[in-house]
Design brief:
The structure holds two protein chains of two kinds. Chain A is of the alpha/beta class. Chain A has one domain: 3-Layer(aba) Sandwich (Rossmann fold). In chain A, 27% of the residues lie in helices and 32% in strands. In chain A, the strands form three sheets. In chain A, strands 11-10-9-12-8-1-6-7-13 form a nine-stranded mixed β-sheet, sandwiched between helices. A two-stranded antiparallel sheet of chain A has the order 2-5. Chain A has a two-stranded antiparallel sheet with strand order 3-4. In chain A, a hairpin with a 2-residue loop joins β10 and β11. Chain B is an alpha/beta fold. Chain B folds into two domains: 165 residues, Rossmann fold, CATH 3.40.50.620; 114 residues, 3-Layer(aba) Sandwich (Rossmann fold), CATH 3.40.50.1220. Chain B has eight helices and 16 strands. Chain B has a seven-stranded parallel β-sheet with strand order 5-9-4-1-2-3-10, sandwiched between helices. Classes of the chains: A alpha/beta, B alpha/beta. At the A-B interface, α3, α4, β9, β10 and β11 of A face α3, α4, β5, β7 and β8 of B. The site of adenosine monophosphate has 22 residues of chain A, from α1, β6, α3, β8 and α4.
């Protein structure tokens, strides 16, 4: 069984992003980039299935510029077998990503496609569901547990106020929650070894997919910060403030 | 053209977030229809038809919709979609699961968690865990979105008189099987609609402390209990307590952050609260930058003292 894992290159989650001078977009030049955290969980899930003898090959795929090589190397160093870079300079929105991934699925015919539940830059959380729809595949989003049993995938999903368990026929699309696993650390020797693994580069244009953006970015802004409040020095003062100034009945 | 709102419910009760979505839907000044999918929906349909601002309730009943799959909800919405210029729902795990699927089937880009709806198909939404706001304009003729419910008031639940109709439900999607749903049992109000939330972080140190320190306070305040990811990962609190970018977004009247550092991924989930109180022993903790009232103190003495001091 082949597993395809989609990995996005995003601004590192520790970076506090800023907007650029003319407020036309987020300033990402020279900012530390890395693999989307949820996508690391997706890779880890694929690796665990392979270690259980349930998967034969893991292919990491990333869409973007040549710079995305680094997140693919990271996936390879974690243990993916090979990688595909779909090169494009356009800013891809989830629907376009889903369509490009659909084209890769048509080529590779994986039985399972793993994605992150959301990208921490756009916070869209759409791509997996869109891909599943385009492929008419079953989907399980926000997965926190995964088990492959008799060609059926049992997935526990995080839902508001609890969890839900589904059984999916393969091929299927699953999106990973952070809770799914603890991604392994990449050790230096693995990074060296990953250099020998293959990254195939395709041009997005070759895949004849409509990647035009449907959402035009008009402007970006920094949200109004919450007004700095006051420091109180005692529990009594805190309660007095809440009662007398905020009308909170305590 | 009409606006379609996808109702969220548990079979018996409407999830109150739907009322906020119904208010958001009034923006287009077109008739608002509410789609309710499930099984044995009569009492729900009655209460939906009583909501002010709803022109029509569309009932979609089938046994397989009792535990609805995204695949089935998406196919159902697509089957009636030609009547709608806008399809929306409150942002939740339910709508986030189903609506992107609808969007792809209709070849429409989707707007997730819109904070504001503006003229000319323009929306404001946040990116980078709430650090940046974007204004985006949709080029699609049909609009599919989820809305940030705390930014819209709830529609009134009495006094409306919507028409009721039934939709033909498409055949069940057979490639996915629902197995089970586990709902956390709790006597406390639901986290995403509670008026008061008391949240604890990693600093509570154990599941026992988490319970012993926070529960008495939460009980006195009739509050829901929340947690940081660090507290959840450490096993101090269940997963569905997590507030933040990857958890639940809350906007209560009062949010009390107990021993929480204030990482952006956490503050994303609580910064719309009316009043934020933070108790942390580190005067430099970033949580104080988003707090209305900050108290530098050891939580293990401060929280019991607060609990004792309130009625
Ligand atoms: C992709 C991604 C998504 C994430 N999503 C979320 C999310 O949805 N929600 C979330 O919460 N986090 C999320 N995180 C994690 C987040 O970055 C932080 O690591 C987490 O919020 C920290 O939790 P904490 O405040 O409990 O712990 P810490 O950061 O360790 O802070 C503990 C605080 O307790 C204080 N303290 C210690 N002892 C005491 C005492 N006795 N009395 C008073 N104060 C005390 C300390 O001063 C410190 O400020 C996410 C991270 C990533 C990478
Ligand atoms: N450019 C991309 N390249 C590879 N995978 C992507 C890309 N964009 C999104 N994805 C995948 O889709 C998931 C959800 O992204 P989003 O819908 O943008 O929140 C991510 O976690 C990735 O697994």
């Amino acid at each position: 069984m082949k597993i395809l894992v989609a990995v996005k290159r995003v601004v590192d989650y520790n970076v506090k992003v800023r907007i650029n001078a003319d407020a036309s977009d987020v300033a990402t030049d020279g900012v530390k980039m890395g693999i989307n955290p949820f996508d690391e969980n997706a890779i880890e899930a694929a690796l665990q299935l392979k270690e259980q003898g349930k998967a034969s090959e893991i292919i990491a795929v990333s869409l973007g510029t040549n710079a995305n090589q680094d997140v693919l190397r990271h996936a390879l160093a974690m243990g993916a077998d090979r990688a595909i870079l779909v090169e494009t300079d356009s800013k891809l929105q989830p629907l376009a990503v889903a369509k490009l991934l659909q084209a890769i699925v048509a080529q590779e015919q994986p039985s399972l496609i793993l994605l992150g539940k959301q990208a921490i830059d756009d916070d869209a959380g759409q791509t997996g569901q869109m891909l599943a729809a385009l492929l008419d595949y079953p989907q399980a989003t926000f997965a926190s547990h995964l088990q492959l049993e008799n060609n059926e995938l049992l997935v526990t999903r995080e839902v508001d106020g609890g969890t839900e368990t589904l059984a999916l026929n393969l091929p299927a699309v699953v999106t990973a929650d952070l809770r799914l696993n603890d991604p392994r650390f990449v050790k230096l020797p693995n990074l060296m070894m990953a250099r020998k693994k293959q990254i195939t580069t395709l041009n997005a244009a070759e895949l004849v997919v409509d990647t035009a953006s449907r959402l035009t970015l008009i402007k970006v802004a920094e949200p109004e910060a919450r007004k700095a409040g006051m420091m109180v020095t005692s529990v009594e003062q805190l309660l007095r403030q809440l009662r007398d100034h905020e009308g909170i009945n305590l | 053209m009409n606006v379609l709102v996808l109702a969220e419910h548990d079979g018996q009760h409407l999830n109150p977030i739907t009322l906020h979505a119904i208010t958001a839907a009034q923006f287009w000044q077109s008739p608002v229809h509410v789609l309710v999918a499930g099984n044995a929906l009569d009492s729900l349909v009655d209460s939906l038809s009583d909501i002010i601002g709803v022109a029509k309730v569309i009932k979609a009943e089938a046994s397989h919709l009792a535990t609805p799959l995204a695949e089935d909800i998406a196919n159902l919405i697509v089957s009636i979609s030609t009547d709608y210029q806008v399809i929306l729902a409150a942002h939740s795990s339910f709508s986030r699961n189903a609506l992107p699927r609808v969007a792809a089937l209709l070849d429409v880009a989707m707007i997730s968690d819109a904070l504001e709806i503006k003229a000319d198909q323009t929306y404001v939404r946040s990116i980078y865990a709430g650090n940046i706001l974007t204004h985006i304009q949709s080029q699609d003729t049909q609009q599919i979105l989820t809305v940030h419910s705390s930014h819209y008031i709830a529609a009134s639940t009495h006094g409306g008189k919507a028409q009721i109709s039934s939709a033909t439900v498409p055949a069940a999607f057979h490639k996915t099987r629902w197995i089970s749903t586990k709902h956390a049992q709790s006597d406390r109000p639901a986290l995403n609609s509670a008026k008061v939330v008391v949240s604890g972080g990693r600093s509570l140190g154990s599941a026992e402390n988490f319970e012993q320190i926070l529960s008495p306070l939460a009980s006195k305040l009739n509050a829901a209990i929340g947690a940081t990811r660090a507290a959840v990962d450490a096993g101090y609190a269940p997963n569905d307590f997590q507030v933040g970018q990857t958890g639940i977004v809350v906007a209560p009247e009062l949010y009390i952050a107990v021993g929480i550092s204030g990482a952006v991924q956490h503050t994303y989930g609580m910064k719309d609260s009316r009043i934020v109180v933070a108790i942390n022993q580190d005067p430099d903790a970033p949580i104080f930058q988003v707090a209305d009232y900050g108290l530098v103190a050891d939580l293990f003495t401060a929280i019991p003292a607060i609990t004792a001091a309130i009625q």
